[in-house]
Amino acid sequence: MHNATIKDLSMQLAARKISSVELSGHFINRIKHLNKKYNCYITLAEDISLRQAKAADQLRAAGKGQPLTGIPIAWKDIFCTRGWLTTCGSKMLSNFVAPYDAHAVEQLNGAGAVIIGKTNMDEFAMGSSSETSFYGPVRNPWNPDTVPGGSSGGSAAAVAARLAPGATGTDTGGSIRQPAALSGICGLKPTYGVVSRYGMIAFASSLDQGGPMARAAEDLALLMNAMAGFDARDSTSLERAREDYARDLGKPLKGLKIGLPKEFFTQGAAPGVMKAIEAAMAEYRKLGCETVEVSLPNMKLAVPVYYVLAPAEASSNLARFDGVRYGYRAPEHSDLTDMYLKTRAQGFGAEVKRRILIGTYVLSHGYYDAYYIQAQKVRRLIARDFAQAFKRCDVIMGPTSPTTAFKLGEKMNDPVQMYLNDIYTIPANLAGLPGMSIPCGFDEKGLPVGLQIIGDLFAEARMLGVAHQYQLATDWHARAPAGIE
Amino acid sequence: MIPYAAPIFKVFAAVMALKLDDVKRVAHLARVAIDEAEAQAVLAQMNDVFGLIAQMQAVDTRGVEPMSHALDVTQRLRADSVTEADQSAAFQSVAPQVEGGLYLVPKVIE
Questions:
Q1: How far is C-alpha B73 from the geometric centre of its chain's CA atoms?
Q2: Residue A235: is it exposed, middle or buried by C-beta count within 10 angstroms (0-12/13-18/19+)?
Q3: Which residues from A are below 8 Å from B53, CB to CB?
């Protein structure tokens, strides 16, 4: 049951071959049995999950089932889920039971999906390895000595280990795509504004975007159909007509122009990664696509720009955690200022504090123009590069991450090395473009390689079709880590 | 693993260099208590990061509009009417300390 895709499970539920109570119970049992090994879940709430499953079965019985009715979904612990502990991977929120649902949660619950658990993540989504969590590091199912990527590493590992058929993540600088790549699954970061940020704990508001993670592109399309949509409570949510993200899945690829940014192919990706990417390009050519060289000349500036904008916005967003209205409060303090100082010193981990300090510095008096405004200007240059590139191609492809999964602890003491993991993913966030990662092979260590597909604004349906056609011709996405049957 | 990275950035880091007092000052502005040892450790790491950031400071951006939003949309307006129900009890149920509908904090006025 746990090896089936969401689409298969949906058909089995529709045919009443299985019930959601059986299916959800099966995943809960697997999680109880295997979570010790991977640490991908922070919280289970079996009673809530099974209540939802029962309601889903009743909907199906009444003929009111939708594609996701009864499907268990793992939620990154950054999404507020009413009645569930919602920690964001932080001690600061280790006692926070969300009093309301995020918009994306409402949408999937409304479609009858079951919340199977809340997944582990880098604290406040700040990281590329899922090691900064207050709840301990997540381990990669392909090799438990390595990281699953981050920050949505718990969701990625859960899907890879068959502890959920699908999951959600958020992507500020690559946090859906990079863990999808390192964990050998599929993940999509939609165009900025397509999925509401309401109830998604804010990190860097001009970049944060929620999206789906699963084992097949067609499953991502099913999840997108429920997750996307206008929401007045998010001031940057886009008012657009509903669309069917599965509409291009069957579209042949003949004549599709794939842009290959030369900077993606010359800047430092590991040989094992490049070999798999080249093989994927050969496969796409076999499917009738044409590859053309394009250029993103300002790409090397993306990481520096991001490490001004994201910490600046984070330092502002995280000012709300002061021990007054929710979350942790330091037990001992002399006065109000001391309470703030100690609450934040004790409640936040090292990486979060580091980013708050960087952000506070770049926004402080005398530095704002030199850092924040300059970064916003360079951001526009990067966005313009993409606009130029898309005049010559339909989609852009390249590696998702410069390396495959690295060892736990390897980059924890060197923030700059950790930040460079996101060199290929950050540009799409800065430009607001949709980006996805799909499995396209393995390196010499047997670790999965992710192929990144970047589309123009609102090109998600086309990108999902481009991914799905590749997945019809190859089986990388269907491979399971050793020992997981 | 990423061979081009480290050496280039160290050069910039030497040029920039924040001082320990800068770290202590921003830590206080951000209301994060920090001790001497922690400040020392963070200083080195912040200088590495600012070394990275220095690359974008050299770029000529004269005449370029800052980009604050990916799609350059403007703020949506709505009618000035009540849309939210009163949920103060639910929201206060997760607060560290409340009394009579008020959030309690240490005394600020003598």
A1: 24
A2: middle
A3: 304, 307-308, 362, 371
Predicted TM-score (pTM) of the model is 0.96
**Domain range A6-256, its CATH number among 3.40.30.10, 3.50.30.20, 3.40.630.10, 3.90.1300.10:** 3.90.1300.10
Contact A357 B30 (CB under 8 A): yes
Cα A27 to Cα A9: distance, rounded to the nearest angstrom: 13
Angle at A406 between CA A484 and CA A284, to 5 degrees: 75
Structural domain count of chain B = 1
Residue A159 half-sphere exposure, CB side, CA atoms within 13 Å? 35
Place of tokens 């090109």: A459
Residue among A333, A377, A402 whose CB faces B2 most closely:
A402
Residue A114 in contact with residue A20, Cβ under 8 Å? yes
Residue holding tokens 């969401």? A6
CA distance A442 to A427: 25
pLDDT tens digits along A161-211: 999 999 999 999 999 999 999 999 999 999 999 999 999 999 999 999 999
Residue of A nearest to B34 (CA): A345
Residues of A in contact with B75 (CB under 8 A): 235
- What is the share, in percent, of chain A residues with pLDDT greater than 70? 100
* CA–CA distance, A379 with A208 (Å, rounded to integer): 15
Task: Name every residue whose Cβ is closer than 8 Å to that of residue B38 and which is 6 or more positions away in sequence.
Answer: none
C-alpha–C-alpha distance, residues A346 and A411, integer Å: 23
Name chain B contacts of A328, Cβ cutoff 8 Å: 96
Count of all residues that appear for chain B in the document: 110
**Bridge partners, A453 (sequence order):** A397, A436
Q: What is the pLDDT of residues A316-330, one digit of tens each?
A: 999 999 999 999 999
Which of B46, B54, B65 minimises the CB distance to A380?
A: B65
The range of the structural domain enclosing residue B28 comes to 5-57
In a domain, B43, yes or no: yes
ipTM over cut 0.90: yes
Active site residues of A: 76, 151, 175
- Closest CA relative to residue A27, chosen from A70, A85, A84, A76: A70
The contacts of residue A338 (CB under 8 Å, 6+ apart) are B106
**CB of A120 closer than 8 Å to CB of A130:** yes
Beta bridge partners of A437: A187, A452
* Closest Cβ opposite residue B29 in set A298, A334, A364: A364
pLDDT digits (tens, 9 = 90+) for A294-308: 999 999 999 999 999
Between helix A46-61 and helix A20-38 the angle, nearest 10°, is 150
pLDDT of residue B16: 57
Delimit the domains of chain A by residue range. 6-256
